[in-house]
Write a structure and sequence with these properties.
By secondary structure, the protein is an alpha/beta fold. The chain has 9 helices and 18 strands. The protein is 24% helix and 27% strand. Strands 2-9-8-7-6-5-4-3 form an 8-stranded parallel sheet. A 6-stranded antiparallel barrel has the order 10-13-16-15-14-17.
Length: 343
């Protein structure tokens, strides 16, 4: 009895190929929990479609991934002086977001991140001239620009990339390769056509691995079903049942990531209204679970436990049976499954 990730492997790989064809020279990203699939599985997929490089989040991820993938490993988190040293092979490329950082990586392969409109980290335009001396002591693999997902001001992502390329060239720095994130295929094609002597490499994770929502599905096994009457007490906190129904114990708890959710950026009146409604219900211990039964998402009977969740299914719904599976709408990047089944 488990929380299972089912993968329609043929469909999943067909989607991968469609993304690869749209983005020549793609840099597949495998960071965090491997987008729900795990590092080893994604390394196998990247090896299968013969990419020469994979991007990871941290040096610790690179240390693990080096045993699964034989190509280059691009670490996305920028190097900082004083960080804990992690033994890594020469095929690891470090991202750097400051002149000081470049000076600290003598002999290393580096990608220099420049400051985009995200304003997260990166070398400023003012610092570009100071890179001349710094890059003499490293092996420069290219520059990188991490762009925002949304552009509420109506600005053009391509124009932002072009502006930075103009600055880099005006500073007389080599620009043979530009790593970019969050550009569309048409936008990338526009850049490649305008700058044929620069190689553009798109760093892509979510769109590559999770772009086809129908290719994957989480399901939790029903472990126990107990009938309860209105007012009857149950659970760790001995709450009362709001009505007659069933307490359904299903595989999937906090250790799997069930009940854990990152904050969302809400746009528009309706999403905000729904957010307020959910927050109000939570104050009276009404929290919607990710599990679906008989066509509806069901409420948690109480907060999820470590490895299971207890749901309340009212009397007007069919009684779940032990051994059946409930579809779960879970966020891939925060979920840890018990097993994966390829179909």
């Amino acid at each position: 009895m488990a929380l299972t990730l089912y993968v329609d492997t043929a469909r999943w790989r067909e989607h991968q190929q469609s993304v690869i064809q749209q983005f020549p020279g793609i840099v597949p990203v495998c960071k965090g929990n491997g987008y729900g699939f795990g590092h080893e599985r994604l390394a196998e997929e990247v090896t299968r479609f013969r990419s020469d490089i994979i991007a990871v989040g941290t040096t610790y991820e690179a240390a693990r991934m080096k045993d699964y993938f034989g190509g280059d490993l691009l670490v996305l988190t920028p190097f900082r002086r004083g960080e804990e040293p992690v033994p890594l092979p020469d095929r690891v490329i470090r991202s750097v977001s400051s002149v000081e950082g470049v000076h600290g990586l003598v002999g290393a392969r580096v990608v220099i991140e420049v400051m985009s409109s995200m304003k997260r980290h990166g070398v400023s335009e003012h610092d570009l001239p100071m890179l001349h001396a710094a890059i003499e002591d490293v092996r420069l693999e290219g520059f990188a620009l991490h762009l925002p997902l949304d552009r509420t001001d109506g600005s053009d992502a391509v124009e932002e990339v072009i502006a930075w390329m103009d600055r880099i060239r005006a500073a007389r720095l080599p620009l043979h390769t530009m790593f970019v994130s969050h550009l569309g295929a048409d936008e990338l094609a526009r850049l490649q056509q305008q700058f044929p002597q620069t190689r553009f490499r798109a760093r892509i994770g979510t769109r590559l691995w999770l772009g086809d929502h129908e290719a994957t599905e989480y399901r939790g096994s029903v472990l126990d079903v107990t009938r309860v009457a209105k007012g009857e007490r149950f659970g760790y906190r001995q709450q009362r049942a709001a009505s007659d129904g069933y307490l359904v114990v299903v595989a999937g708890g906090t250790s799997h990531g069930v009940g854990l959710e990152s904050p969302k950026a809400l746009h528009g009146v309706m999403p905000r209204a729904k957010g307020v409604a959910r927050a109000g219900l939570a104050t009276v211990n009404r929290n919607l679970s990710p599990f679906v039964w008989s066509g509806k998402q069901r409420w948690f009977a109480e907060p999820p436990h470590m490895q299971v969740s207890i749901l309340f299914v009212p009397n007007d719904a069919p009684e779940p049976k032990v051994g059946e599976e409930l579809v779960a709408h879970l966020r891939h990047t925060t979920t840890q499954f018990d097993r994966v089944v390829d179909r």
